Amino acid sequence: MIQIEYLPIILTGIGIIVSVLYYAMVLRNSNITRQAQLFSQIYLVFHQDYPKYSVILLDWDYENYKDFMEKYGRQVPERYGDWLKLCSFLEGLGVLVKRGLTNKHLVGDFMSGYVVKFWIKFEPLVLEIRQVLDWPSAYEHIEYLYKEMEPIYRKKT
Predict the structure, then answer these.
(1) What is residue 96's three-state secondary structure?
(2) How many structural domains does the chain have?
(3) In which domain, by residue range, is 75 found?
(4) Which band of pLDDT confidence, cut at 50, 70 and 90, is reported for residue 43?
(5) 140-156 and 77-98 are packed helices; what angle lies between their axes, rounded to 10 degrees?
(6) Is residue 22 domain-resident?
(7) Are the beta carbons of 145 and 118 closer than 8 angstroms?
(8) Does the pLDDT of residue 2 top 70, yes or no?
(9) Cα-atom radius of gyration of the chain, to the nearest Å?
(10) CB of 117 within 8 A of CB of 150?
């Protein structure tokens, strides 16, 4: 039998265990909520800008880096701005997915097609950019994002 003097100690221990479990549950739920909020912000930017830019960029025709820069480079600020905006968005999204700050399946459900089509179109250009500019890590997070999105896209098609 449990002696009455041990009852406060036992109840305190049970209270601590319940408190820790409750805190872990609240922490987990707030983490999920933060990820959902972050993704909502990402999707808002995506929905406003990405379809427009991706349609424009996917229609671009170029033979190599030099041809790309002549047609769409710095001397054509609007086109170059479109390129930089889209690359910055995808690069940032790649970092978020890589660091686990947003769920890759959530991103994949909404955007895998865009990411895959972008990378297929511009991979040769990116590889040439890496060589010409001696920048081996150029757009590495877009490439990472593509590798994460491609299997999700393949399952959807």
Answers:
(1) helix
(2) 1
(3) 39-156
(4) confident
(5) 70
(6) no
(7) no
(8) no
(9) 24
(10) no
pLDDT digits (tens, 9 = 90+) for 73-128: 999 998 898 899 889 989 999 999 999 888 899 899 888 998 999 999 999 999 99
- Angle between helix 77-98 and helix 65-72 axes, rounded to 10 deg: 120
Residue 1 has pLDDT above 70, yes or no: no
Of residues 86 and 146, the one with the higher pLDDT is 146
Domain-located, residue 13 = no
Percentage above 70 pLDDT, the chain: 97
Between CA 94 and CA 146 the distance in angstroms is 8
Tokens representing 137 are 């890590």
Which of the 8 DSSP states describes residue 6? G
Residues in the chain: 157
Indicate whether 51 belongs to any domain: yes
Could you give the CA distance from residue 106 to residue 37 in angstroms, rounded to a whole number?
12
CA within 13 Å, CB half, 144: 17
- Helices 104-132 and 140-156 cross at an angle (nearest 10°) of 140
Specify burial of residue 85 (Cβ count, 10 A radius: 0-12, 13-18, 19+): middle
